[in-house]
What does this fold into?
Amino acid sequence: MPDINAGIIALLNGSIATNELFQQCDLGNNKVVLFNSFNELARDHERLHLNIVAIISESEVMEPTGLSLFDQIKKKKLDTIPFFLLPGKLDGSLAALCLQAGVAEVFVQPLRRDRLESRINFIVKHWAQLQQQADRKVVTQYKTPFLKRSFDVIFSSCALLALSPVLLVVMLCMKLESRGAVFYYSLRVGTGYRIFKFYKFRSMYVNADKRLKELQHLNQYNNEKVTEELPGMELCAECKAVGKKCRNQLHADENIWCEKQYLTSRKQQSGSAFFKLKNDPRITKVGAFIRNTSIDELPQLWNVLKGDMSIVGNRPLPLYEAEKLTADKYALRFLAPAGITGLWQVEKRGKGEMSEEERLMLDNVYAEKHSFWYDIKLILKTIPALFQKENV
It folds into this structure.
């Protein structure tokens, strides 16, 4: 039980080594207390009225416990407390993004005790003055106009109501064919780099990851050896380089898949060379149908109703893609609403594969031009795009 009279520096998601290092630091009258999650910290703060003088999160910048944690901190009205990040990697663009958002300091691992002591002690002691004197440029937050938000709520509500018979039949068929959750979610980065749960219908068996392992001998890209495993999931090289936890997870109840594996399986359906299987046995029959008809995307109407997304906007990105797009050249796309359909989906019609650079430039164009009537125009153009052979 923390001493409620002491100044508490809350350490979130701290490893054993990091916690031990902080216990050795001379932080004056302040004491470092390890919390398993921000929810635990917020609960103890409200119940015990803890004197929290700083919050430190050991996390990558673009993970939910990283920069996005600011949203939770603000909701609990703890944003007047300095917030520190301890990522495993950091480039200039991510560092600038952190400072613009209001992060007090970023300490890249491996951590140095002398720097932790000097910077944390100074910032905690002078935080009030630093806030008053600093000319902080906070990342512009997009606010959905009333007309656009009203349209989103009405459209998504009516669509969910009208499609409810279809949704019920799909869910029933899924349950009859395979056990497991009907929905799954992955984490996506939307407007202002805000992270949210992005919902879809499940189209694979719950043991899809195990089947992928069994079928590796059929994959022409099977030269890389898997040297680290999690229960039910293999770590890709990118996740291994960062740590021992998959950063690209899909969640359905207690089941977890690797999102990169999932996307690879989707690419093979359209003839991609990443996974050469003509009929992927991991995909259910219902799953194949809802993918080909885009019915698996319909749960995103719930994201629209909740306010995570809009009907029209830039597609929200997986964490591992969004963290690469923090430079000024690409960051503009995150100052527009996240959406189900958008400019690049319309522009792609009839043009075959579109390069990543072209997509990003179209996202920036939409961010500069978007308006309610421009959205209506894109919706009308999206309708004929739905009948083209190539899925966009």
Remarks:
- The domain at 7-133 is CATH 3.40.50.2300 (Rossmann fold).
